[in-house]
Amino acid sequence: MVLLTMSAVLSLYGQVVVEEIVAIVNDDIITLSQYKMEEETLYQMLSRQFQGEELARQFASNKKYLLDRMITDIILLQEAKKKDLNVKEQLKTMIETLKKENSIDSDEELIRAMSRQGMDFEEWKKQMEDYLLRQGVVYSEIQSSVIVEDSEILNYYKLHPQEFTEPAEYKLRAIHISSEGRSEAEVEAKKSEVSQKIASGEDFISLVAAYSEGPEKENQGDLGRFKKGELEKNLEEAVEALKVGEVTPWLQVKGGWYLLKLEEKKESRLKSFEEAKAETEEKLFSQKRQEKADEYIKKLREKSYIKILKPDISGF
């Protein structure tokens, strides 16, 4: 192994550039600029999912493990090189799939599409190749050792019925009366008029056309289907008390009132073992595979030379 000091000396167009080293991993190094690049990539990825305080929290949490992940990635790529793994065909398939999913006909068109999104195609391709190599190393070592017995599947199914229970589902139609710009008396008068017409047996859809003021009016009041837990609590409690064909009392929501009609109800049910078997087997297989992968990576790290020169890097 080449002995390295706290900095790496690189040659760039005849100039000497001093690059600070963050960690040594066998015969490879992680430089500060590489770390900062990964840090920026992490931030950009998280910013697509979170904003504000939640983004800051997620970034700080993930940043703690960034250097550790980079070290593991290097070790796995070193193993892939030792095993002489080749993932060119897998990468080609991945690119063809990406083009097909996005209705792109050529690599040139894909390159332009990525460029418009601020992505470099060659850099992305290298990242994907490295990803496939890392996955290939792990799976080549552990895949054949992961076995899920039928007895394990059945036992998990019996112990976790909540995971295989389909929630109740409701199909609803609604009349919405807005309270915006109206006095309380005006709102009550309108609600009372609708209620009287329902009590006299008038068609609900006709009343939607005549009285409803929400966007659902264009769909004859059809709100669609909701699984238990998806509605606001006060709405769900009122709907649960109904039989199919019945209408709730007026329910207050922000900006107005709703009258809901239960058109269909699908009761909650536990899937049969045969229905749940495939997804249960896949879940158990994934869990075992992850456990085996963690064990394998731990052993690789234990036999590797790892020296962290900036242990406080995540705090920068």
Please give a structural write-up:
- Helix 3 packs across helix 6.
- Strands 1, 2, 3 and 10 form a four-stranded antiparallel β-sheet that branches. The chain has a four-stranded antiparallel β-sheet with strand order 6-5-8-7, with helices on both faces. The chain has a two-stranded antiparallel sheet with strand order 4-9.
- The two termini are 29 Å apart.
- It has 316 residues and is an alpha+beta fold.
Shape: elongated
Largest sheet: 4 strands, antiparallel
Query: Helix segment count?
Result: 11
Number of domains: 2
What is the H/E string? EEEHHHHHHHEEHHEHEEEHE
Strand content: 15-25%
SS-based structural class? Answer: alpha+beta
Q: Please state the CA-atom Rg, rounded to the nearest Å.
A: 30 Å
CATH homologous superfamily heading of the largest domain: Porin chaperone SurA, peptide-binding domain
What is the share of helical residues?
Answer: 40-55%
The average pLDDT is 91
Poorly predicted runs are 1-6, 10-14
